[in-house]
Design a protein that fits this description.
With 211 residues, the protein is α+β, with helices and mostly antiparallel strands. It has a single domain, classed as Electron Transport, Fmn-binding Protein, Chain A (Pnp Oxidase, Chain A, Roll). The protein is built from four helices and twelve strands, in the order αβββββαβααββββββ. The strands form three sheets. A seven-stranded antiparallel β-sheet has the order 3-2-6-9-10-5-4. The longest helix is centred in the N-terminal third of the chain and has 11 residues. GO terms for molecular function: FMN binding; oxidoreductase activity, acting on the CH-NH group of donors, NAD or NADP as acceptor.
């Protein structure tokens, strides 16, 4: 099958991209409105792109009627946001936060979650999250129906049991984030395996370092 993305309707492009670029980690993004109302919204168009500087990227679609979502409004006003990673214990609450509420509704409280004051930014992070990353906006790219936000991580909060004693690597038995596949289908990282590169590359081939 061949698909010409220069002529393909938007929904068909979304369906194909989100079906095949998967699984995608979920960012439960918390922000604070100019009126001081906490907001939380799940996003699967999200990932980490750099460690120097430490950059996360969010892709936030406009509402079907073309209006800007509360998350974008809040980020524009404060210049910051927090990414809370989602595991199975947070999965149901994450879907509740995905409902379109009025701007004056505290979605974190509505979902039965706990807001913890942030250290380096306005607003806060979700105490039930295994890992939360406070971010300051580094750059915003605006398209007609989508906003791409680059956030620089300035503080990370990690549940003690998620890391080994040296604080270097996650314990896979304790940190199992979920990710989105397509439509309402998700996957959890509870079936992990180790895959190491060969000890030496074939003669005449230089091994590349993963980035």
């Amino acid at each position: 099958m061949e698909f010409d993305f220069t002529t393909l309707p938007e929904q068909d492009r979304y369906r194909l991209l989100s079906n095949f670029v998967a699984p995608r980690p979920i960012a439960l993004v918390t922000t604070l409105s100019p009126d001081g109302v906490p907001n939380a919204a799940p996003m699967s168009f999200f990932n980490v792109f750099s460690q120097e500087p430490p950059i996360l990227i969010l892709g936030i679609q406009m509402r079907p009627n073309g209006t800007i979502k509360d998350t974008v409004t809040n980020i524009d006003a404060s210049g910051s946001f927090c990414v809370n990673m989602v595991d199975m214990a947070l999965a149901e609450a994450m879907t509740i936060c995905g409902i379109s509420y009025a701007p004056d509704v505290d979605e974190i409280a509505t979902a039965g979650l706990t807001m913890t004051p942030a250290t380096r930014i306005e607003g806060g992070w979700i105490a039930e999250s295994p890992c939360a990353m406070e971010c300051k906006v580094a750059e915003t790219i605006r398209y007609d129906r989508r906003v791409i936000i680059l956030g620089e991580v300035v503080q990370m909060h990690v549940r003690d049991t998620c890391l080994d004693d040296a604080g270097r690597y996650v314990r896979p038995e304790n940190y199992q984030p979920i990710a989105r596949l397509h439509a309402d289908n998700y996957i959890t990282s509870d079936r992990q395996f180790e895959l190491k590169a060969p000890a030496a590359p074939p003669v005449g081939i230089t091994r590349k370092t993963p980035t």
